[in-house]
Amino acid sequence: MDILTTEHHEVLELIDEMKVTTDPGTLRDHADTIISELVRHSVAEEMFVYPAMRKHLPDGDEAVEHDTQEHKELETTMKKLEAVDADAPEFRQLLGQLESILRDHITDEETEQFPELRARIPRHELVEMATKVELAKKVAPTRPHPLAPNNQVFHKLVGPGVGLVDRLRDALTQRNT
Ligand SMILES: [Fe+2]
Ligand SMILES: [Fe+2]
User: Which helix (H) or strand (E) holds 169?
Assistant: First the structure.
């Protein structure tokens, strides 16, 4: 879960950088990085961490329902974010929305669910889970990757609203099953 916590803070740092950035190219680049990182992160959690929460936490099912719902909200917001121009006013508004859902979600995971899971999961399962999460990162490198645009060129070539979030999720889910 350490790697997941690190990823949370990497994404929040990128969002913070975007607050002091005005260059649309940089904003687009950062947004695309955040989208591909968060989709991969969510898929890894859903495949390898949330099942362990269901198994080991007393309120596991409830916690997983709640977290999965928040992943959906994040994805809905990211779909909108992928489709708006970086210099449009909605871009900032969507970024703010993404940040607020994300901060809430991260706080839940880091202060409640991850510590509870660490306390209850048998050591060998914890090691196995960490290995799988690590592997998901290697199997699905976000940059460079044909599905994960790493700069504004992607958006110039393909245009906005291309279903990046859905395509990434499909590709990652298939690769890992
Ligand atoms: Fe997370
Ligand atoms: Fe999550």
Answer: helix 164-176
Read off the pLDDT of residues 93-132 as tens digits, 9 standing for 90 and up.
999 999 999 999 999 999 999 999 999 999 999 999 999 9
Instruction: Calculate how far, in angstroms, residue 45's C-alpha sits from the geometric centre of ligand 1.
Output: 7
Ligand nearest, relative to CA of residue 74: 2
- What amino acid is encoded at 66 in this protein? H
Helix 89-108 with 60-83: angle, nearest 10 deg: 160
- What value does the CA radius of gyration of the chain take, rounded to a whole number of Å? 16
Task: Round to whole Å and give the CA distance between 59 and 170.
Answer: 29
Tell me the longest C-alpha to C-alpha distance in the chain.
49
- Measured distance CA(66)–CA(64) in Å, rounded: 5
Task: State the Cα torsion 73-76-77-80 to the nearest 10°.
Answer: -170
> What span, in angstroms and rounded, lies between the C-alpha atoms of 154 and 129?
34
Taking the CA of 7 as reference, the closest ligand is 1
* Phi/psi at 2 (5° precision): -60, -40
The rounded Å distance from CA 129 to ligand 1 centre is 14
First-to-last alpha carbon distance for the chain, in angstroms, is 20
- Express each pLDDT in 18-31 by its tens digit: 999 999 999 998 99
Q: How far is CA 155 from the centre of its chain?
A: 20
